[in-house]
Amino acid sequence: MLIPLILAAIAGYLLGALPFGWLIARKFGINIFEHGSKNPGATNVKRVLGEKFGAKGKRAGDLAFSLDALKGAAAAGWPAFLHVYEVKKNTGADVSLGSAYADSNWAYMAITGLVFALVGHSFSCWTRFKGGKGVATSAGGLCVLLPIPTLLGLVSWVLVFQVSRYVSLASIVAAVVLPAAASFWPGTPRPFAILATVIGVFVILRHRANITRLRNGTENKFVKKSAAPSA
To answer: What is the DSSP annotation of the chain?
Structure first.
């Protein structure tokens, strides 16, 4: 299994290292490392471009989030497609993608791919080993591996964000809810539950500066703009 795991790690890192937020901001003439929180993640891209370019900038931020999530989904999902191809080629049988993860070898390839996608996203070789916090990339990969626990984490994220308007706080809460849900949800493979815990800890650690700003009351929030007063 060593060579397949190495291949999964390399593929995962290269996928994760694709700096979509940085590239999208560059299209608008913005070096995202010099604006806002100086983070190339989708949240900072949406905030910075939204303030400067309005709805068009916000859509660009949404695109960055989608592409970052797609990186994680691809890194975690391609071993399942390879498994289906191998089974079809060798036996002619049709099997589901989910059946791949019943085999620990394929499951560990998926885990390795997603973990290294997070490493690549956070420490991209294309941006001098700077990167985002990994929330979108984690979400994309975990949607493939743990759809129900990830949905519960997403619900918690939405609720906390709607109440607080802090993306960082919502992400931290989701990083706690996800591994808890994965641990208690029936039928969750143990390696995936452990992965959810590791990713949750990783995301929280990547938010250390945000936690400090939240405690000091200096964290940026998305504030709903009130309608302009009538003449």
So the answer is: -HHHHHHHHHHHHHHHT--HHHHHHHHTT--GGGSTTS--SHHHHHHHHHHHHTHHHHHHHHHHHHHHHHHHHHHHHHHHHHHHHHHHHHH-----GGGGGGSHHHHHHHHHHHHHHHHHHHSBGGGTTB---SHHHHHHHHHHH-HHHHHHHHHHHHHHHHHH--HHHHHHHHHHHHHHHHHHSTT--HHHHHHHHHHHHHHHHHTHHHHHHHHHT-----PPPPPPPP-
Domain end, chosen from 97, 127, 157, is at 127
Return the ∠ at Cα 190 (arms to 205 and 82), rounded to 5°. 95
Task: Please give the model's pTM, rounded to 2 decimal places.
Answer: 0.81
| Other beta carbons less than 10 A from residue 18's beta carbon | 20
Tell me: the pLDDT tens digits for 7-54? 999 999 999 999 999 999 999 999 999 999 899 999 899 999 999 999
Is residue 225 included in any domain, yes or no? no
**Surface-to-core class of residue 13, CB atoms within 10 Å of its CB (0-12 exposed, 13-18 middle, 19+ buried):** buried
**23 and 89 share one domain:** yes
Encode pLDDT of 130-180 as tens digits: 999 888 998 999 999 999 999 999 999 999 999 999 999 999 999 999 999
Q: Which domain covers residue 63, as residue numbers?
A: 1-127
Does residue 133 lie in a domain region?
no
